[in-house]
Structure formats: structure tokens, C-alpha cells
Design a protein that fits this description.
Layout (H helix, E strand, L loop, with lengths): L2 H9 L4 E2 H12 L8 H13 L3 E6 L7 E6 L1 H12 L11 H12 L2 H28 L3 H29 L4 H14 L12
Antiparallel strand pairs: 1-3, 2-3
Helix pairs in contact: 5-6, 6-7
Length: 200
């Protein structure tokens, strides 16, 4: 996730410091993202500084410790423009824990295992969808509402995959599962060496 570019976008509006950037990021993206870890944010700021995309200035405060204020550089603005102009590929590809779980359940050949895996996931996704809907209705910021709506669309797509998996794996009374289990057994069973033949 290109959080560093989101930080550059925030700094494009003016200089800022760590905790102020954390608050601005969380307000901008809304509650579905979750809190931004301040330690991770400072790592990002250090990297941006090393790459000369931001400059850091230490400012003395009368009572509190010195504060480090970050400002975007011309190179940082160019990098932000480059990022905004590019399409965003799916960050994780399709390497997903649930895909692996469906694979394992299907190749077990047990319909009850498949039903349990799919049922548990469907219940989890339905709860997530209700939570996102409540957050969206409570949000005042139109961009936050839009991001929550996008999150809901992703959950709806995941629910559609659960339905697809159910149709593909359970609609034929177990024939597909039996075939998958037999194929898996055939590809994972190695011929064991037979007993040594006695010399004649």
C-alpha cells in the first residue's frame, strides 16, 4: 500500500509533523482503514527524507521536546504527480488466505468441510458489510463515504465468490469433490519401494 504517496499528498497542502499527519491521514481515509501506526509513519517519513522527496526541519518548542516538521520538495511533488497519473494494479494479486482455505477444503473431498468454510466466510462477510454500511451512513465527509462504499463493493465481490464456490463444489451431490480428492491423492502419493527381493 502506497502510504508514502498519501503522506506526500498531505504534505502538498503544507508542512506538517508526525502526529498531525497521522490525524490528517485517518480523517482523510475514514474508519475502514484503521489507525495508522505512528512508528510506521515515522519510518515512511525517514525514507521520504532519504529519497529527498521531503525535507525535515527540527523546531524548538518552549515546553515540549523539539518537533520535526516535514515539507515536500519539488522532487516529492513530481513523484506525487507520477503516482497520481498511473493506474493502480491489485496490490496483493490473488494470493488470499480464503482462496487457500477453499482449495484445502475442496481437495479434502468432504462436503461438510466445504460447507463449514463457505458458511463461516459468508457470515463474516455479511457482518463486515453491515458494519461498513453503518459507518457509511454515519460519515459526514463525502470522500470517506465513497471509500466506505468502495470497501462494501469489495466485500460484495467476495460474497459473490463464496456463492460461486458453493455452486461449483456442492451443486452436484459431491461428484466434483470426490474427483478433486482422488486427483489430489494421485498426485501426492509416491510409489513406496517394495520389500527387497531375496537372492535366489
Amino acid at each position: 500500500m502506497a502510504i508514502q504517496h498519501a503522506v506526500l499528498a498531505l504534505l502538498a497542502h503544507g508542512p506538517s509533523y508526525g502526529y498531525e499527519l497521522k490525524s490528517a491521514f485517518e480523517a482523510a481515509v475514514g474508519p475502514q482503514w484503521g489507525p495508522l501506526n505512528i512508528g510506521h509513519l515515522y519510518q515512511i517519513l525517514d525514507r521520504l527524507s532519504r529519497d529527498e522527496l521531503v525535507v525535515a526541519e527540527r523546531q524548538a518548542q518552549p515546553v515540549k521536546p523539539d518537533r520535526v516538521v516535514y515539507e515536500i520538495t519539488p522532487a516529492g511533488r513530481a513523484e506525487l504527480d507520477r503516482w497520481l497519473a498511473e493506474p493502480s494494479p491489485r496490490s496483493g494479486g490473488f494470493r488470499d488466505d480464503f482462496f487457500l482455505k477453499v482449495t484445502a477444503a475442496a481437495r479434502s473431498g468432504a462436503a461438510e468441510t466445504v460447507r463449514t468454510v463457505l458458511g463461516n466466510q459468508r457470515g463474516h462477510l455479511m457482518r463486515e458489510l453491515r458494519n461498513l454500511d453503518a459507518l457509511r451512513r454515519a460519515a459526514d465527509d463525502p470522500v470517506v463515504r465513497l471509500l466506505l462504499s468502495a470497501a462494501s463493493r469489495h466485500v460484495e465481490a467476495d460474497l459473490a465468490f463464496v456463492d460461486d464456490a458453493e455452486s461449483a463444489l456442492l451443486a452436484d451431490g459431491g461428484a466434483t469433490l470426490a474427483e478433486l480428492a482422488a486427483h489430489t491423492a494421485g498426485t501426492t502419493t509416491h510409489d513406496a519401494p517394495g520389500p527387497a527381493r531375496a537372492a535366489s
